[in-house]
Amino acid sequence: MEMTFAGRTLDMSRCHVMGILNVTPDSFSDGGRFNQLDAALLRARQLVADGAAFIDVGGESTRPGAATVTVQEELDRVCPVVEAISQELDVVVSVDTSTPEVMTQSAALGAGLINDVRALQRDGALDAAASSGIPVCIMHIQGEPQTMQERPEYRNVLREVGEFLSERVRAAQGAGVAADNIILDPGFGFGKNLEHNLRLLASLEQLQALGHPLLVGMSRKSMLGEIVGRDVNERLPASLAAATISALKGAGIVRVHDVRETVDAVSVAMAVKEAG
Ligand code: 7PM
User: Which domain of life is it from (predicted)?
Assistant: First the structure.
């Protein structure tokens, strides 16, 4: 149940908190590379002080309708941040990317995890992930980020997500990724309606049966907004409930915006789990 991320070993039978760090221009809009790096580092230090075990650095917005980013632009945004955090902070740097060049360069600069919402389906991604030698998170997605929420449909969402993830695990292992370097993610909100998302969360234990640690990301997502009827910035309590449920159901990592609050919620869930 242990996994090593660029020299840091974690017990994945416990639940760890991953803080989200966006390095898209819309998140630090006032320009300048130095200011962006500076702002990202300040945020990273806060996430670590709040108890994050991982920081997920992302330079490409997967929001439907978001502008596409060139490889060079993504490299320029992500690499300096990955390098600076890896050098300064005691945390696993995760790189949220589908781009092989970003995977390779980030791993060389100290990243400990590749988090690909496209499940290593881009040309060259399987080989880049395998060559990096670091763990990978393979996420389920139906369709493409731009259009995935238009009309998500499944005959049996749990079975189809399980089959997709199993196929991508086989592909990753075929390319040379070690089985014990693979994390799986059902991909909440990625080509799924509320009913699909709830069925997946209710059945998280069955995805554990695939034999890999699970990462889940529901923080502030619209599935929670639909349940509680609140705008994105009013979804902290709903996000904490989702993280708590995930931790109780055995998730190894919860990916969130609000690290400090989530660490407390997950601590309670883990204490209860251990008493049971
Ligand atoms: C627009 C759409 C903006 C989606 C932001 C998002 C996940 C992830 C994201 C996840 C893993 C968000 C998402 N979500 N990586 N990256 N799992 N592994 O709401 O659920 O943060 S981006």
Answer: Bacteria
